[in-house]
Amino acid sequence: MRSTLADIAREAGVSSATVDRVLNNRSGVKARTRDIVIETARRLGYFGALKEGGGCVQLDFVLPAGTNTFIANLQQQIEMQASGRDDLDVRVHSVEGFNPYTLATKLNELHGRTMGAGVIALDHPAVREAMRSLAAIGVPIITLVSDILHVPRLGYIGIDNRAAGRLAGYLLGRLLGPGGRRKIGLFAGSLSYRGHEEREMGFRHVVSEEFPHLEVVELREIRDDRARALTETRSLLQRHPDLAGIYNIGAGNSGIGEALMESGGARNVIFVGHELTENSKQLLLNGTLDAVIDQNPRVEAREALSMLARSVRGEPLEYHPPRLQVIFRENIPEN
Length: 335
Description:
The protein is of the alpha/beta class.
């Protein structure tokens, strides 16, 4: 039989009213008391019986704020898919994108307020400790888009970022073709995201293996910001007017594209980026962007919701990872 509120209250040493406030995410309960109630409810199998009882699973996602269109699309997919499920109560929190302490603070605020959490995690000690703290009270955690190691996470939802970087290097090398020394510029959102670091590693590795005539002349972190991408690309083109190629590891394609178009180099510089958005689609159509390596936010949202909900209910986990897809102007998919 499913444990009752009275069972949880008795074991936790609190009132049934307090248990009700915690399980329904109402205010007026101290953080430590919330932790005790949630931990007791898990121990008594309350959440595992949600499936039979028709209860609602409270999930929280912490995503970076900013101008990253892919992240906006991912948030939209999480909210849209969750709204169609009566068994889920989902909240999405936006935090400063490249501040690990802000991210860690938000994760710590979820103590006693969530049954499962998804996060695009910065690889930083404060973030790792916050994730460990949540996991220690039985909250399942998944990482999205960019992984982080040495934490007790339930799983990672996203593409193989090292393979994505290798694919970008192969595309750029083949599109540029054989010849003499060619200059390549790299842009990243932030290498504090493990996913961006892995893409850079994969890119450099395949270039050194297959295309030794290509030289990476600069790497700039643009914080996934369109305005910063525009400024940095203008500077890069001024310093290297003979630039042959650009690989953008993260977001900011529209800023890079604008700088290429205003310089007249849109047709002379091979440009490879990530994520099919409305902005990158227009850059593909006008020939500024040559190829996009896409991961599907719809699939990632679906898998994240499914994995967390199944874990809370004690059901077997299923995972169908998103596939890497290369999109050119000629094979832009329907929405």
